Amino acid sequence: ILDWLRAGAEPDEAGAERWLKESAGQGFYRAMVGLAVLCARRERAEEALSWLRRAAEQRADPEACGPHEWE
Most CB atoms closer than 10 Å: which of 17, 18, 38, 66? Predict the structure, then answer.
């Protein structure tokens, strides 16, 4: 989903957020990082930080998710 968002295609961000939340709810840390990126794009910094914290609690390797768009 993130590659799709990065590619500049016509994104369905609402749909992406729905799928990412479903995956994150199952503990998939990459979905949590994806939600953080999406929230940051939408200027929802607190929510983005919350998702990053949840991913960190999964002991996620931040480098495994590729470059961070918010840097």
Answer: 38
